[in-house]
Amino acid sequence: MGKNLKEAMKMLEDSQRRTEEENGKKLLSGDIPGPLQGSGQDMVSILQLVQNLMHGDEDEEPQSTRIQNIGEQGHIALLGHSLGAYISTLDKEKLRKLTTRILSDTTLWLCRIFRYENGCAYFHEEEREGLAKICRLAIHSRYEDFVVDGFNVLYNKTPVIYLSAAARPGLGQYLCNQLGLPFPCLCRVPCNTMFGSQHQMDVAFLEKLIKDDIERGKLPLLLVANAGTAAVGHTDKIGRLKELCEQYGIWLHVKGVNLATLALGYVSSSVLAATKCDSMTLTPGPWLGLPAVPAVTLYKHDDPALTLVAGLTSNKPTDKLRALPLWLSLQYLGLDGIVERIKHACQLSQRLQESLKKVNHIKILVEDELSSPVVVFRFFQELPGSDPGLNAIPPPNMAPSAVSQERHSCDALNRWLGEQLKQLVPASGLTVVDLEVEGTCVRFSPLTTAAVLGTRGEDVDQLAACIQSKLPVLTCTLQLREEFKQEVTATAGLLYVDDPNWPGIGVVRYEHANDDKSSLKSDPEGEKIHAGLLKKLNELESDLTFKMGPEYKSMKSCIYIGMASDDIDVSELVETIAVTAREIEENSRLLENMTEVVRKGIQEAQVQLQKANEERLLEEGVLRQIPVVGSVLNWFSPVQASQKGRTFNLTAGSLESTEHTYVYKVQGSGVTPPQTPSGARTKQRLPGQKPFKRSLRGSDAVSETSSVSHIEDLEKMEHLSGGQDASEANSPERHPEAPTPPEAEQTGALQDRAQRLEDDRPQVEEPESLR
Predict the structure, then answer these.
(1) Helix/strand/coil for 121
(2) Could you tell me if residue 653 is left (phi over 0), alpha (psi between -120 and 50 degrees) or otherwise beta?
(3) Is residue 297 within 8 Å of 121, Cβ to Cβ?
(4) 427: which DSSP letter?
(5) Region annotation Disordered: residue ranges (predicted)?
(6) Is the pTM of this model over 0.90?
(7) Is 10 helix (H, G, I), strand (E, B) or coil?
(8) What digits encode the pLDDT tens for the residues 470-512?
(9) What is the SS3 assignment for 696?
């Protein structure tokens, strides 16, 4: 028996253990996502999942934004990543020889193409990573005991890194985070303010900063110069900067898009001076249209141990395989293909410059018209009393507030112009930039976009034509802004909202009766009125666009009026907005009061019906209320009682008896309300003329065969209507006893006969009288 009990307990423990294992598997499988459950997925399902994630829903996303158009050279670059994974599986000796060959060939080709002799190369994915490694190399070169003492050496003599004020935002913070340095180690060098480009580093001020840092016991470590700033593509005076760095023992690093022109036959002297710098960062991927290609930092240094410590070189063969995609792509393109792509981008920028020179109200911010591969332009409106050649300088008698308002208006219009051009010519690769001095501008940088987007000369011509076509809209809108502000200010019930970021005619808000003017919080009643106003304005089918805002729901609602493409009658527009908003407010109040009016009318009707029932009981007597006796009595002597009820007239707001309805089989006519007077100006328009357009009368552009005839018809209609009104007003009143002419008697007889015919017909209920 004991033996059987032990076997039974063992069987229970085994079953319990199996149950726990199964439960554990269920719990584990429930925590893991679906694709990992079971024995795995097949290759077709995995690739289908990747395709769905890449393309997404084609109905929701445009075709152009899904994936970049990759050419054959792009496929070569992408193939390099797959080959790198296969090559990494070779044995160590073959892998070492192959990676060394790939790295040395790519370094030699890049140094020869971009005129940087006897240089080394570091390939990296992040563009700023190379500069961080260069800073680390400079620290190890200037601080010999840094490897032993670490940051104690830096504490005694703080290093200083000099950056231009025109450098890309966030570059200094990135360097400090990567190097573990405090922010006071950064020195921001201002740009020129008096002479030269306002986007170039001020060399004289830089020298003063270096001397001041040396007097404070600091160590000037590294200077970052620009060969094409991130905003406008201007190049610093690299030749003078190199002399200054050699004088004070500072490492000079150059970066920028203009370094691509080093591969061309003609190079400006300022860019050519970059070949003498200590290091430079190149981005051949965007220049040549190569996807997933690393950036390259070329540098000169004789100590391989320090470069290894700084991370610029590595003993791992897999790190050297980063150059494989670029190694394959450079061989595919060849020297002629590389030069042709860079030359084509520069020709596109020159072509746009020549086209924009012929366009009025467009200012070009180009440093060197012969060699600059970046074109930055903006729309401007000449200030009153200013010289067209000095349009950026406001007149001295102009108030600062007016200058600021003019600046904000032009910034909003330039932002709108850039967005419109990007939609009309997507192959141009335009970007909108905000500059500190010039304001909002549009940038065309084909070196970074043309190879990827496939920009051609026809696209540049189309871009210039689109700019020319948008200028009348911009100038007309800018001219109508002040007139719109004055009209809104002079109109009761409307408030002008100054929004400098809106590129349209202006912003207006309707102030209803219960509007709290001192509060800026959202108003539900105001939102309802503005929503109805927006709907009414859009139903007018005018050339103007209306939008309701702002984007922040905590603010009060407003009506945003878009760009004006033609001469707009601003007074009519403002008056239409005011009258329409006022009507919407009155209608909303009527609907709100309707419930209370109907409720009181129903209560009054119930009271009157109850009184009528009591009067009927007294009139009929008690005997008629007894069931059997009342029926016999009503049969012998029926009561001719009229059916009494009540109707509620919504127009008059009063109760009326239904006796007239049951007797004459028609409802009461009630009172016909007068038409609601409209405050809008009834402007007669020509056939096909849209709302808010100025009248064509007096215009030289009116056609004799079309518009003049319509105008004459309108004048005749006005003359006839005016004549009839005058005759009615001037006719003397007849005396009641005066004799009637025969024509009048005949007309009166006909009218009496018609009236008798009408009386025989049943009358139709008036629509304003509701039960």
Answers:
(1) strand
(2) left
(3) yes
(4) G
(5) 1-36, 668-771
(6) no
(7) helix
(8) 999 998 888 888 888 898 898 888 888 888 888 888 888 888 7
(9) coil
